[in-house]
Amino acid sequence: MSVLTIRDVPEDQIRVLKTRAAQAGKSLQAYMQELIATETAKPTMREMAARLEREAAAEYTTDDVLAAIDEGRLGR
Hints:
Shape: elongated
Radius of gyration: 22 Å
Low-confidence stretches: none
Number of strands: 0
Number of helices: 4
Distance between the termini: 41 Å
Helix content: 55-70%
Largest sheet: none
Order of helices and strands: HHHH
């Protein structure tokens, strides 16, 4: 695992983060790791656009669609 250092963070922002961490019952480190994990799990607009472009470019036949519907119905 890597180490991340952030310099020049204003004291008022540090206080807010420490308060929120304490309210969540976490250390500042654990709280920040959670924030980073949450943020990196969300795709950016550019990533979403690229994904939609790839999916829109995919070619599906009517048989593919009907098979997916049947498969979904079986999973109920």
